[in-house]
Amino acid sequence: QVQVVESGGGLVQPGGSLRLSCAASSTIYSIYDMGWYRQASGNWRELVASLTRGGTTAYADSVKGRFTISRDNAENTVYLQMNSLKPEDTAVYYCKAIAGPSSSVLYQYWGQGTQVTVSS
Question: What is the phi-psi region of residue 63: left when phi exceeds 0, alpha when psi lies from -120 to 50, beta otherwise?
Fold first, then answer.
């Protein structure tokens, strides 16, 4: 019922920048909160940044001051601007969309993931 498509990953040198995009679409559900998660090899998937439809943001401590999440509500698209990238930011980045028929009946939908590699 909901499609979530990420783009923008790639290889970047330490200190560089990347911008990830995620578009969520549905013909029957409303899209509510959206966010970015990442999973490095051998690690659990962790929250990177999230953004509610009303504009409230949350960030992992490890990315505060370097990453910025933003959203185009009209297009149900969320962006993650990543600056001052470090090798430890290397991971598969996943977009999550919370959607449902109403604000009291919600489901999680995940994208396929996009690889971000920070290396010289």
Answer: alpha
3-state secondary structure 49-103: EEECCCCCEEECHHHCCCEEEEEECCCCEEEEEECCCCHHHCEEEEEEEEEEEEC
Angstrom distance (rounded) from CA 26 to CA 7: 18
User: Strand pairing partners for 108?
Assistant: 98
* Mean pLDDT (10-residue bins), the chain, 120 residues: 94 97 94 96 95 93 97 90 98 96 93 96
Q: Are 18 and 10 in contact (CB under 8 A)?
A: yes
Residue 42: partners with Cβ closer than 8 Å, 6 or more residues away: none
Give the angle 29-99-46 at the CA atoms, nearest 5°.
Answer: 160
